[in-house]
């Protein structure tokens, strides 16, 4: 059998099944033990059917990869060794139906509870496995870690309140229902198990949430002790968890919240400085565009922290759709592509932005990957041409060292890759291939750009 | 720096040699020379760039305009022997795909 990747599809689907079965086990086993005390054929079949999954899970776990220091271990023997050393013991106890041995002695009881039901409690050792699964998912990228933490807290509340509810009834049961125990006072000693469980759970929740209506109260010493423990454990845990959930929910989209608060602060600043409303609106529109297309992130800032090889791979992915529109990359070898990717800067411009002005000497080449740019004369009145996806300008002015005779103004939101003059000359001198690439790229120049040259336009 | 234009007619081929810099100041002079031959209905022309030290955007515009007009008249124009600097400018600006540039004068003559 092949190794099972911890972040693979199979493991994720299997974990989903196991997660559901752990929850089922946690709900069924304490209920049977503390409240119903009954064993039906259907109940037995369900319990052992669930056990089959956990026995299979032992084999799957021993073949599932794990990470040490960020590196995934794929060696089969070390996978087994790691599993045997860390979790096999507990998983075995939790998976094997040891209680089945005592089914032939149903009358063998301890404190009024059959021995096989006591042994069935071993299945509660599955609880830690639930958190192992959630921790594994936290390393996945397909789910927001905030949601997983909320799930973890919700599971903790669910498990804790269920266990306390079952124990609250069990405390009266095990002491033989004395006359002034809460069950007798409530008059539900012979009620349906459902009714008993609902009352117990009701008391648990009112105690944990510190609501305490006072309709179900302790009367005996052990009940007082149990209530004190429940209040300390339950209420403090409940408060901790609810506080954490509230904080997690408010931070679920912390990036969005912080981005929009930055926009609001910018707007406030512009208003206080008396910037005209249309200009402020342009700033806001720009930020909105950046949010919708780049999630407001300055990719350079994030990527600069990565080592070059990793940064290149991420950049290739991030910019793949934009790069497709830039002929410079079409003709470049992978080596030159890497050099260019490190040198190019991706920028976004809003409509009516002057990318180039007549009279200035070009300091960069603009490769338009999205949007359109008007080439205008020095008065800004006459438009020579409109450049769009895949077209570029700035090369002639840089190459010849001449001043621009025309300007370039965006007509839409525009995504462009920018190559600085310094990098241009550096790459041209160090990589002879670059000249060939520029030549091939230039051969695609359209009639439009040739006409610009005939019109005496230098950009 | 000035530009010397040396033009001669060998059989039916006009040979024009540009010596010096072809820039904003000298481009009109070169354009005038090309136009003169165009008006004389020249059908074959070779522009020798062997001693052309530099070509500016104005010079490139003259080359482009001359090529377009010659082609429109059913005539042929070849450029030859550009030095490294000029060749790089023509390559990177994409002009080598529009202008017919040959490495030597002989190649240009043979291609006519």
Question: What does this protein look like?
Answer:
The complex is a heterodimer of chains A (459) and B (112). By secondary structure, chain A is of the alpha+beta class. Helix content of chain A is 60%, strand content 10%. Chain A has a four-stranded antiparallel sheet. In chain A, strands 6-11-8-9 form a four-stranded antiparallel sheet, with helices on one face. Chain A has a two-stranded antiparallel sheet with strand order 1-2. In chain A, strand 3 (109-110) and strand 4 (113-114) form a beta hairpin. Chain A is elongated and about 105 Å long. The mean pLDDT of chain A is 86. In chain B, strands 1, 2, 3, 4, 5 and 6 form a six-stranded mixed sheet that branches. The N and C termini of chain B lie far apart (32 Å). In chain B, 40% of the residues lie in helices and 30% in strands. Chain B has a single domain (3-111), classed as 2-Layer Sandwich (Transcription Regulator spoIIAA). In chain B, strand 2 (13-22), helix 1 and strand 3 form a beta-alpha-beta unit. The chains are: A alpha+beta (459), B alpha/beta (112). The interface between A and B is medium-sized, with 18 and 18 residues.
Q: Helix amount of chain B, in percent?
A: 40-55%
- Protein chains sharing the most extensive interface: A-B, 18 and 18 residues
Query: Which strand order spans the largest sheet of chain A, edge to edge or round the barrel?
Result: 5-12-7-10
Question: Per CATH, which architecture of chain B?
Answer: 2-Layer Sandwich
CATH superfamily of chain B: STAS domain
The CATH topology of chain B corresponds to: Transcription Regulator spoIIAA
User: What is the number of domains of chain B?
Assistant: 1
Helix tally of chain B equals 4
Structural class of chain B: alpha/beta
Give the quaternary arrangement of the chains. Answer: heterodimer
Could you give the count of β-strands of chain A? 12
């Amino acid at each position: 059998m092949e190794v099972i990747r911890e972040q693979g599809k199979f493991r994720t689907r299997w974990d989903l099944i196991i997660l559901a079965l752990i929850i089922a086990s946690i709900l069924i086993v304490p209920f049977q033990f503390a409240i119903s005390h009954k064993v039906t054929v259907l109940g037995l079949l369900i319990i052992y059917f669930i056990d089959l999954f956990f026995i299979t899970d032992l084999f799957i776990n021993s073949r599932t990869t794990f990470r040490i220091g960020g590196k995934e271990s794929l060696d089969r023997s070390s996978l087994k060794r790691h599993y045997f050393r860390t979790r096999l013991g507990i998983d075995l106890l939790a998976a094997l139906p040891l209680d089945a041995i005592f089914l032939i002695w149903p009358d063998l009881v301890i404190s009024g509870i059959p021995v096989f039901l006591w042994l069935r409690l071993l299945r509660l050792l599955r609880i830690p496995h639930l958190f192992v699964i959630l921790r594994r998912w936290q390393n996945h990228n397909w789910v927001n870690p905030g949601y997983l933490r909320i799930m973890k807290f919700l599971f903790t509340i669910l498990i804790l309140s269920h266990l306390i509810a079952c124990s609250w009834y069990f405390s009266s049961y095990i002491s033989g229902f004395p006359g002034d125990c809460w069950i007798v006072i409530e008059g539900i000693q012979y009620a349906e198990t459902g009714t008993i469980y609902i009352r117990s759970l009701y008391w648990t929740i009112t105690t944990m949430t510190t609501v305490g209506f006072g309709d179900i109260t302790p009367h005996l010493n052990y009940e007082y002790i149990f209530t004190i423990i429940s209040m300390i454990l339950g209420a403090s845990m409940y408060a901790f968890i609810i506080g954490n959930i509230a904080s997690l929910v408010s931070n679920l989209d912390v990036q969005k919240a912080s981005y929009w608060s930055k926009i609001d602060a910018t707007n406030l600043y512009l208003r206080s400085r008396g910037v005209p409303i249309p200009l402020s609106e342009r700033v806001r529109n720009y930020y909105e565009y950046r949010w919708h297309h780049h999630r407001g992130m300055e990719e350079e800032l994030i990527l600069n922290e990565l080592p070059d090889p990793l940064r290149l791979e991420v950049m290739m992915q991030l910019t793949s759709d934009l790069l497709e529109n830039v002929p410079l990359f079409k003709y470049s070898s992978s080596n030159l592509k890497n050099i260019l990717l490190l040198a190019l800067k991706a920028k976004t411009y809003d409509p009516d932005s002057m990318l180039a002005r007549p009279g200035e000497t070009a300091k960069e080449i603009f490769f338009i990957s999205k949007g359109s740019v008007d080439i205008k004369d020095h008065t800004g009145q006459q438009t020579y041409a409109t450049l769009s996806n895949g077209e570029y300008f700035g090369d002639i002015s840089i190459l010849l060292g001449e001043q621009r005779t025309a300007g370039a103004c965006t007509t839409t939101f525009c995504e462009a890759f920018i190559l600085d003059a310094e990098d241009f000359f550096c790459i041209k001198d160090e990589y002879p291939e670059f000249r060939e690439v520029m030549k091939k790229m230039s051969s695609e120049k359209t009639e439009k750009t040739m006409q610009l040259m005939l019109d005496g336009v230098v950009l | 720096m000035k530009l010397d234009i040396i033009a001669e007619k060998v059989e039916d081929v006009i040979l024009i040699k540009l010596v010096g810099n072809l820039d904003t100041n000298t481009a009109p002079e070169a354009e005038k020379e090309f136009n003169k031959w165009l008006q004389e209905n020249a059908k074959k022309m070779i522009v020798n760039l062997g001693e052309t030290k530099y070509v500016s955007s104005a010079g490139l515009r003259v080359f482009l305009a001359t090529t377009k007009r010659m082609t429109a008249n059913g005539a042929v124009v070849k450029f030859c022997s550009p030095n490294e600097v000029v060749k790089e400018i023509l390559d990177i600006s994409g002009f080598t795909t529009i202008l017919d540039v040959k490495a030597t004068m002989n190649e240009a003559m043979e291609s006519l």
